[in-house]
Amino acid sequence: MNDIAVPSGVSLRAIFKVFVTAGAISFGGGVVAYLRQYIVVNQGWLDDENFLDALELSETLPGLNSVNMGVIIGDRLRGGVGAVVAVAGLMIPGIIVVMTLGILWDQQRHNRDINHFLTGIAAAAVGLLLTVTLQLGHKQFIRLPDLLFIVATFAAISLLKISLVIVLLTMGPLAVWYYRPAERVPYKRENFFHLRQRFRSHRAHWRH
User: Fold this and answer.
1) Domain identity same for 97 and 35
2) The domain containing residue 133 runs over which residues?
3) pTM above 0.70, yes or no
4) Residue 194 included in any domain
5) Cα 57 to the center of its chain, rounded Å
6) How far is CA 56 from CA 53, 78, 99, 122, in A?
7) What is the pLDDT of residues 146-205, one digit of tens each?
8) Per-residue pLDDT tens for 60-78?
9) Separation between Cα atoms, residue 68 and residue 57, nearest integer Å
């Protein structure tokens, strides 16, 4: 990720509070939107660029994106202990709620009102994810190469129904190759001029 000054004085309690809050209210998978709101906007622990770097890395790793985000951000703020605290805060609410609802769900699974309620929550989560996508990715939507990668990836997965693994293994290396750092010139112009002068002086010495 980009090199920025890690906020000093971030307590484990503050990390736990942020992640447990996000885990408790992020119905339907909108946890990334809540994490951005708390970590970037409210707390200022990361900026959008570094939050996006963490999100991109979490999506390329096995496991849940939200858990990966907890590990990456927690580790950045307070090391390994911070990562454990962040993941614990993120997962505890879900574990409690899912275990409780799992007991009740068997009796209410055919209730149309509950099904409509869950559908509404899922729709709201999609809206949250779309919002955070536009907030974090606005730079990518205005640059032509980035836009081409986005469109090609969307078309391959959504329209052509190509396997996600194949798309990642294809588009990922292409994007890395395209944005590879420029090769460093081994000798600057002034160094070349200096070497040329030395060569001329040696040649004049050999003539004598």
Assistant:
1) yes
2) 1-109+119-138
3) no
4) yes
5) 5
6) 5, 21, 30, 23
7) 888 888 998 999 899 899 889 888 988 888 888 887 655 444 444 445 545 554 554 554
8) 888 888 899 999 999 999 9
9) 8
Half-sphere exposure of 110 (CA within 13 A, CB side): 1
Tell me which residue has tokens 């994106």. 65
For residues 87 and 15, membership in a common domain is answered with yes
CB-based burial label for 142 (10 Å; 0-12, 13-18, 19+) = exposed
Whether 66 is covered by a domain: the verdict is yes
**SS3 category, 173:** helix
Provide the 8-state DSSP code for 10. Answer: -
Number of structural domains the chain divides into: 2
Question: Has residue 39 got a pLDDT over 80?
Answer: yes
Q: Are 49 and 28 in contact (CB under 8 A)?
A: no
Residue 47 lies in a domain: yes
The token pair at 156 is 């391959």
129 and 165 belong to one structural domain: no
Could you give the CA distance from residue 173 to residue 179 in angstroms, rounded to a whole number?
10
Same domain, 123 and 191: no
Give the amino acid at 90: L
62: left (phi over 0), alpha (psi -120 to 50) or beta: beta
